[in-house]
């Protein structure tokens, strides 16, 4: 004997259980005729002996979702059509369920409003999404710490130099003072050297502090071109100092990006500052620095800072993003390292390529903000 198909009603009930979907019918004003399918009782954790009541759902709404839901309802019941709502429902035992509700509203006889709806329990999906978000945040934190670990290793190395110099000069002072007729000029020179080295050490620490300070990133939806415009006067100072010309090639109609604006402005300033310093180091005039924005591919806006200066020497290219790598006597070697870690925290990239016919070009991407519907 072959199996017989189940009863349509039973199958529907079973399907609702599998889908965690319940259905309801009620009237406004309350006519006393209400329907909840068994799955609604299960989702809301309400005793099936209780009569169905949409007022009971309002009573169980999570306090943070209550006002919004009631406003949506009071708006919807003035007309007809559809209403979609998502809210959290707090069961009598305190458990919270995430519900997506859909209603179709129509006029019933006598002018009352008939609402037919479904309640979908999406708690598992919401929990998984929440978990994924938390995992991503932990991952970002680990990445940040890893960068900091690298930086800390570099810093202890970097601090050794001024500290060793300070020790040497201090010893020299001792020796000079022990002489029968101490040479004041030499001692003064040694002391000046000590002060200068101490300043240098302090500066290194200062920079590190700025980086390590756990600043909550603050992302907002902004126009990439506005980030460039915000720092324009700073950039112009660099251009003037290096006697180079600043050019802007900002694409119109770019999609908005979702970034920490202050951090991205820091990146732009760093890159332009490096370009200006490259001109200053060679003493060449007639240099050009161009800042360009473009729509990149797959969800990013692309920003580049290019110059026609000396560019990166062979062998240097591979190392410029390392913390403390610098070719400048007064450099910290942190500008590009910090810029790259800022962009990585934005799940974006910073890369270098040679500019043609000469010079350097640094390009980074910024994530486009999700469309708000
Ligand atoms: N536009 C550029 N042109 C030539 N060299 C550059 C440019 N930008 C960066 N560099 C090189 O990369 C190195 C690292 O840069 P950065 O991390 O900003 O540290 P710093 O500017 O303190 O040296 C610089 O010392 C320089 O050699
Ligand atoms: Mg720099």
Strands, helices and their partners?
Blueprint: H1 8-19, E1 21-28, E2 35-36, H2 38-44, H3 54-60, H4 63-76, E3 81-90, E4 96-107, E5 113-121, H5 123-178, H6 184-212, E6 220-222, H7 224-230, H8 232-241, E7 244-250, E8 257-259, H9 261-282, E9 287-295, E10 300-307, H10 335-345, E11 350-354, E12 360-367
Parallel strand pairs: 7-9
Antiparallel strand pairs: 1-2, 1-5, 3-4, 4-5, 6-8, 9-10, 10-12, 11-12
Helix pairs in contact: 5-6, 8-9, 9-10
The protein binds adenosine-5'-diphosphate and magnesium ion.
Features:
single chain, 373 residues, alpha+beta, Beta-Lactamase, Helix Hairpins, Heat Shock Protein 90, 3 domains, 5-stranded antiparallel β-sheet, 5-stranded mixed β-sheet, 23% strand, binds adenosine-5'-diphosphate, binds magnesium ion
Please explain how this structure is put together.
This protein has three domains: 8-121, PAS domain (Beta-Lactamase); 134-212, Signal transduction histidine kinase, dimerisation/phosphotransfer (DHp) domain (Helix Hairpins); 220-367, Histidine kinase-like ATPase, C-terminal domain (Heat Shock Protein 90). α5 runs antiparallel to α6 (184-212). It starts with 7 loop residues before the first helix and ends in a 6-residue tail after the last strand. The mean pLDDT is 88. The strands form three sheets. The protein has a five-stranded antiparallel beta sheet. A five-stranded mixed beta sheet has the order 7-9-10-12-11. It has helices spanning 8-19, 38-44, 54-60, 63-76, 123-178, 184-212, 224-230, 232-241, 261-282, 335-345, and strands at 21-28, 35-36, 81-90, 96-107, 113-121, 220-222, 244-250, 257-259, 287-295, 300-307, 350-354, 360-367. A hairpin with a 5-residue loop joins β4 and β5 (113-121). It is α+β, with helices and mostly antiparallel strands and 373 residues long. The structure holds adenosine-5'-diphosphate and magnesium ion.
